[in-house]
Structures are given as C-alpha cells and as structure tokens.
Amino acid sequence: MKKRSHKNRRTQTQKVTRPSAPAKKQDIPSRWPRLSAYGRHHLRACVTSFGQLMRSPFANILTLAVMAIALAQPSGLYVALKNIDVLTASWDEAAQISLFLKRDAANANTLMTALEAIPGVATALQISPDEAMAELEDTTGFGGLLALLPENPLPTVIVVTPAATVNTPDAISALVDTLAVLPGVEQAQLDQEWLNRLFSLLHLGHQAVWLLGLLLGIAVLLVVGNTIRLLIARHQEEIQIMKLVGGTSAFIRRPFLYMGAWYGLLGGLCAWLLVAISLYWLQGPVDKLATLYHTQFHLDGLGIVGGARLLLISVALGMLGARLAIGRHLAKGQ
Predict the structure, then answer these.
(1) 23 located within any domain
(2) Among candidates 224, 219, 212, which has minimal Cα distance to 315?
(3) Backbone angles phi, psi at 53, to 5 degrees
C-alpha cells in the first residue's frame, strides 16, 4: 500500500509539473482569409454590376446622357466664371478718381498744383484731349470714324490716385466730394464703381452656380434612384431567394450600390467630355475677339483637380441614389 501510494503521488506530481503544450497556430483566428473573401465578393459585385450595365446599352446610354447634361450645366457655368475671374484678376487695382475739366477751364497745370496740397491725394496724372483721343483709337479701332469728327470732343482729364490711408468707402467718397468742387472741375467720377458692380455680379454668379448645382444634383439623384428601382423590379425573384437562403441586407444591397457608382462615374466622364468639347468649340471665337483687343486669352477647363471633384460628386450622387432606392425596397420587404 505504501509503495502504491508513493507511486500515485509521483504520478500527480508529474502531471502538475508537466509544461503546457504551445498553442497551435490554427487556434489563433486569422483575419486574412475573411478579408480576402470580402474583397473578392466586392470585386465580383463590381464586375457583375458593370456587366449588367453593358447588357442594356441603349437604355443606359439615355440615362447617362441625361446625367451628363445635368452635370455639365453647373460645371460649364463654373468654368465660365473661373475664366472671367482670371480675366478680371488684373483689374482689381487701387481706386482711381477721374476729374473731367470744363472746356473753358483755365490752365490745368494750376489745378495739378492745387491737387498736390490736398490731403489724401497720392498722385495725379494729366491726360490731354489729344492723348485721350489717341488712346480711344487704339482701344476701339475706330480711328477712321473718329477722324470724321469736326473737332475733338474729349475734355482734359486728371486721374487722381488716392493715398494708401484713404482705403475705406467713406474716406474715398469724401475725397471725391472734395475734388468735385475744385475750380474748373465739371465732374468727378470714381473709376472703381463699375468694377465693384462687376465683382458683385460675379459673386452673384458663383452663388447661382451652387444653387444650380444643388438642383441638378437632386435631379441626378432622382434619375439614378428611378433607374435602380426599375432594376430592382427586374431582379425581384433573385432578391427573394437571397433572403430565403439567409442573405443579409448588405449582401443584397452591394451590387446595386456598385451599379449606382458606375452610373455616376460614366455620367461624370461624359459631363467632363461635354465641357471640354464646348471649350474647344468656343476657343476659336474667343481668340478672334482677343485679337481685336490686341491681347491673348486661353480658356481654362476643369483641369485634373476640377475633373476629379466632378467625378467624386457624380459617383457619390449615384451611390446615394442607389442606396435610397434599395434601402426603401428592403425596408418594405421587412
């Protein structure tokens, strides 16, 4: 009995002191196969949705044409305003005040001397009637027509540049009122007013672009949503079978989301192409107009950054429209 008890005690001791076996690698869950299967399913859904898009070319071409026109309109207006901004960038100079002198005014040099003593006047430039007529001929190209005039109708003009300290609308208006009552001055005109009006119109145009883009973006959303809704109706039986075998909502939703993304991508590319063709068609008349004004101007398109933004917006609209359509269908099915 003692030997047997001693033997049992040695066996228990060996069991306690025996080192545990290292964990097998198969016991550690690996995420790579799961992620690989997930990626393969996404790729399969993407390719399958593109194949379905190509099976009905005529109907899809009409849908893409509507989307392209809707996306091209705000994009084209944005490009037009961007080119106008580039053209007017060099016009945003300091405000200048033009003093139109009376025809029977005394010596203009006396007025030039008086302007130097007025606070707020930085520089003053005198333009004689002959110099003004020559500049008008060069600018308009109406030299032959202006030569038929019996006399030069242009008055002497003094262009006054305010000092840097005169940088507020009230200060500039006060300076204009001071210069308008000087002897020999018939009219004092602030040359910056028309430019301020132009910039206000451009600002209004930019706001109109955002509004038009919002409205047409909603139109693209509705077009994609309606197209995906018709596609869902054609695959109603397949969706029901997927639900019966345990397909999740994300699994059912995925191909339709990729279909919306393809619609958005192709529609955005077509819109980009329409804007590029329009600019190419307008470049010829713009070159002729710029030649008449002895200048050069090249129309800028969307560019890589602008085109990428257009594609991102169009893809997002396509996926959102598809998400709303399939989400509504799945919600009704539940």
Answers:
(1) no
(2) 224
(3) -65, -35
Same domain as 305, residue 214: yes
Q: How many CB atoms lie within 10 A of CB 152?
A: 12
Burial (CB count <10 Å: 0-12, 13-18, 19+), residue 46: middle
206 and 325 fall within a common domain: yes
User: For 141, left (φ over 0), alpha (ψ -120 to 50), or beta?
Assistant: left
Q: Give the pLDDT confidence of 45-94 residue by residue, as tens digits.
A: 777 777 777 777 777 888 888 888 888 888 888 888 888 877 766 555 55
Query: Which among 138, 165, 189 is the end of a domain?
Result: 189
Boundary (domain end) residue, out of 189, 212, 228: 189
How does residue 272 score in pLDDT terms, banded at 50, 70 and 90?
very high
Closest CA to 191 of 96, 89, 92, 126: 96
The DSSP line for 8-67 is: HHHHHHHHHHSPPPPPPGGGSPPSHHHHHHHHHHHHHHHHHHHHHHHHSHHHHHHHHHHH
